Amino acid sequence: MACDMNERKLIERRQYMQILRNLKDQNIIKVITGVRRCGKSTLLQMYADELLQKGVTHDQIQFYNFEDLDTLVLGDIFQVHTHIKNRLIADKMNYIFLDEVQNLTDFQRLVDSLYIKPNCDIYITGSNAYLLSGELATLLTGRYIETEVLPFSYREYLDYLSANTQKKTENGSSADFIEDDNRSKFLKLSKKESFRNLQQLPGSLSVDMVRNETLLDYIFHGGLPFAVHQDEKQNNQSKVFLQSVLSTIIEKDIFVRHEVYAKQSFKKLIDFLMDAIGSLVSPNSIAGVFRSENVVIDNKTVSQYLEYIATSYLFYKVPRYDVKGKNLLRTFDKYYLSDTGFRKVCLAKGKKADMGHLLENAVYLELRRRYNQVFVGKWNDREVDFVVTDHDGYTFYYQVAWTTQQPETLERELASLNAIKDSNPKYLLTTDVDFNPVYNGIQKLNVVDWMLNVNDRVNQEKRTKTVEITVEKTVEKTVEKVLKVIHNNPAVTQKELSDLTGLSRRGVEWNIAQLKQKGIIERIGSRKHGYWKIKKNDNEL
Fold it and tell me: What is the C-alpha R_g of the chain?
């Protein structure tokens, strides 16, 4: 490999690091999910390093990667549990990191057992949605918070490029990474400046060309950290890496877990979805296309395969939302790649092929980072690219096009948004630079400027508030459980509270302390022979 990952400078993934900081020492399991190689393990390692910098000792941190044979040789869940338990520091909080834990059989029992210990703060990662299905979800309902990690955003992509361009220059090999001096200047200036303020860039390349070429690089090569910005000389290495990730997803996360007999048809389905980004599809329509190409497959099988693909985080299934009827539609969905770089591995298409669809995919991923829910919109016979809602329930509409400089293209893209008769904000995102005009209330924005605003103060505050609200709601549900048990049996012991609510002893102690501090409950009598008195009336429970 031309540039070893260990030789590269890392960047802080601010959004995810802040979430982990907010959840530190909370009586809740932190579940980190996302497609393979999107940076989950590195995120946990960076967080563990931060804990060390803030005074946590090495003995308090245990880190296990269950894709590493050195970890798997520890044995089954009982042997791993014994190994972890024997290393716990009794009088301090212990931070337990279980990376790719789904590779350990019956891992959910291990997690549950560690959770009930009073001095364990648990962090787990997984690369498929089955991590939170079945027994784990049943055992840990109300006791975990999921954080989804995506590949690099465009902002993170530029930060990473800038950091490693500087490092390469120091080593005297900057030409291998960014060949044009304008690009290097762009990376530095774009960290703080809008593209409208970059017009003074000297040199042979215009700012528009620099901007669009960099955006094209991002959506073509994708945002998986190891594959970020491989130039033409390294493109083969990038493809080898992405192919290995894609093969691992298919072979380990899908074929090993499920009975897929028609493997060639399955891989053909993946190619079809990659080629159909931005198109509405259904099991029936896909089966029809396959039959027209003499591939025999029924719509039920296609439906199962689509589920396998989505639960592996290779694609995201995005349902349609009827804006007028305020309900989800059951027919036809869109599928977007978790990383657009996978597409160049499967399809023999150049960087400038299907730019509009790839941009739409990149915008979807950015919306997924920013909003609670993302849908494909429908208003009568019009389609809107995206309908999103934030944590406060407000709705926004987005239309995406590479360019609308031709009048007929602008008219077509605006028509879908103009058809919607409510007053919610509407945006048209393009690569055009025309100073954000407004058409009948629809604001046209430069998509790169829009992407670079993801880490501004307002969005950061919204993301932090979302985490705080999620934690608060989880805590509220737990408090309700505790109060109901006490209401039914004022003499209940803490051990009985643990058994009846499913909380760990540490969780019970924490909730009791919070309730006492807020004056909601009071202990009457001794620990052994006393009882709990609830100071609120029944209507307030």
Answer: 26
Q: What is the pLDDT of residues 398-456, one digit of tens each?
A: 999 999 999 999 999 999 999 998 999 999 999 998 887 999 999 999 999 999 874 34
The string over 316-336, giving b where at least 16 C-beta atoms fall within 10 Å of a residue's C-beta and e elsewhere, is: bebebbebeeeeeeeebbbbb
- How many of the other CB atoms lie within 10 Å of CB of 453? 15
Helices (H), 314-387: 342-346, 355-370
Supply the DSSP string of 50-97, one letter for each residue: HHHHTT--GGGEEEEETTSHHHHTT-SHHHHHHHHHHT--TTS-EEEE
From the list 300, 441, 278, the residue with the least C-alpha distance to 360 is: 278
501 Cα distance to chain centroid: 30
User: How many Å apart are CA 527 and CA 148, to the nearest integer?
Assistant: 43
Nearest partner of 448 among 425, 434, 431, 470, judged by Cα: 431
Which amino acid, one-letter code, is at 142? G
| The two structure tokens encoding residue 145 | 């918070």
Please name the amino acid found at residue 84. I
**Using one digit for the tens of pLDDT, what is the confidence trace for 225-236?**
988 856 544 667
User: Within 10 A of 288 (CB to CB), how many other CB atoms are there?
Assistant: 12
Pick from 380, 393, 381, 391: which is nearest to 325 by CA?
380
Would strands 521-524 and 315-322 be described as parallel, antiparallel, or unpaired?
A: unpaired
Pull the structure tokens for residue 206. 């215009």
Name the nearest CA neighbour of 115 among 482, 509, 508, 506. 506
Among 44-48, 198-202, 284-288, 472-476, name the one with the lowest average pLDDT: 198-202
- pTM value? 0.80
Question: What is the 3-class SS of 138-171, one letter each residue?
Answer: HHCCCCEEEEECCCCCHHHHHHHHHHHHHHHHHC
Q: Which long-range contacts (CB under 8 A, 24 or more apart) does 438-442 make?
A: 439/410, 439/414, 440/414, 442/414, 442/417, 442/418
CA angle (460, 8, 236) in 5-degree steps = 105
3-state SS string over 214-240?
A: HHHHHHHHCCCHHHCCCCHHHHHHHHH
Query: What gap in Å lies between CA 304 and CA 497, rounded to an integer?
Result: 42
Instruction: Compute the average pLDDT of residues 290-309.
Output: 94
Give the integer Cα–Cα distance in Å for 79 and 39. Answer: 28
**Of 79-93, 149-163, 492-506, the least confident:** 492-506
Return the structure tokens found at 48. Answer: 């563990």
Measured CA to CA, the distance from residue 181 to residue 232 in angstroms comes to: 17
In the three-class reduction of DSSP (H, G, I as helix; E, B as strand; rest coil), residue 393 is classed as coil
Q: Give tens-digit pLDDT for 356-401.
A: 999 999 999 999 999 989 999 998 889 999 999 988 889 999 999 9
